[in-house]
Design goal:
Length: 116
């Protein structure tokens, strides 16, 4: 009987030790699970913030693109208007040069006629 009782006592001690180890392992797993849950929540929050920042940047980029497209269009219109003015001025210069040449020729004929 005494060997059965001491074996039973040994088994009881082993069982208590195993239960204690199991409880510690469960607590460690629970703590690790809580840390991982917090990390996951933090990462999700950072991801949401990052997504919001990206959306804001995309909106700013769209506004800048629209502004630059308007500016470029306006500058192209101004450039075209200046080109048209230049062509008109070139025509005026040509006409004035022709008028000047004609006036000189008329003057030279009058002067030649006067000298005769």
């Amino acid at each position: 009987h005494s060997s059965e009782k001491s074996l039973s006592e040994q088994q009881r001690m082993d069982l208590e030790r195993d239960v204690s180890k199991g409880a510690h392992a469960i607590k460690a797993l629970h703590d690790q699970s809580a840390r991982l849950t917090q990390d996951c929540e933090r990462l999700q929050s950072e991801l949401r913030e990052s997504h919001q920042e990206r959306q804001l940047l995309e909106q700013q980029m769209e506004r800048l693109r629209t502004d630059y497209e308007k500016r470029i269009s306006l500058l192209e219109e101004q450039l075209e208007a200046l080109r048209t003015q230049r062509k008109d001025h070139e025509k005026q210069i040509t006409l004035l040069q022709q008028e000047l040449a004609s006036s000189r020729a008329d003057y030279e004929r009058l002067e030649a006629d006067f000298k005769q």
